[in-house]
Amino acid sequence: MTEYTQKQWYVVNTYSGHENRVKDNLQARIESFGISNLISKILVAEVEEMEVKPGKKATAKMTNLFPGYLFVQMIMTDEAWYIIRNTPGVTGFIGSSGGGAKPFPVSEDEMENIFRRLGISETTVVATFTLKDHVRIIAGPFSGLEGTIESMDDSTQTAIVLISLFGRDTPTEINYMDVEKL
């Protein structure tokens, strides 16, 4: 029996729109088969977004960043692999070439990026910039833009960067990891 010894993150393919149902099914199977020591976390990458319609009250809705996918932290054993693959709604693992080949885990850096997008990152970033420094945004929708640090919040790991949009300085909240000092 081939097995790895440490828990790593893997991507499980599901029917799109059924991610939470598959997560519930998988959690029930983990309990019934008694393999909670092998599979520790199941993540549906959802973020809350505000939906605003003219003349109506704003409503919050959950949006899946990766429709059709779950992230599972597990020790890859034949047993755990079999139980997940045979869970109702699961169509397979991403990174498996088929023919009985086990999938490749997701890198720690990629998972950290996902955690940051979900606001659950545990990594603490030490800022290499200070107030009034000139910086460049290196990731996200404002990537490539330059601005000035207006304020910093170490508890949320975010900085308010004044960037020029349409000829006007616009304060924009950016994660520390997405900013570099010029």
Fill in the keyword field for this structure.
11 strands, single chain, elongated, 4-stranded antiparallel sheet, 182 residues, 3 helices, alpha+beta, 5-stranded antiparallel sheet, 36% strand, SH3 type barrels, Alpha-Beta Plaits
Describe the model.
This protein has 182 residues and is an alpha+beta fold. It folds into 2 domains: 8-118, NusG, N-terminal domain (Alpha-Beta Plaits); 134-181, SH3 type barrels. The chain is 19% helix and 36% strand. It has helices at 19-33, 78-85, 108-118; strands spanning 8-14, 39-43, 46-51, 59-64, 69-74, 90-93, 134-137, 146-153, 158-165, 168-175, 179-181. The chain has a 5-stranded antiparallel beta sheet with strand order 10-9-8-7-11, with no helix packed on it. A 4-stranded antiparallel beta sheet has the order 2-5-1-6, with helices on one face. A hairpin with an 8-residue loop joins β7 (134-137) and β8 (146-153). 16% of the residues are buried.
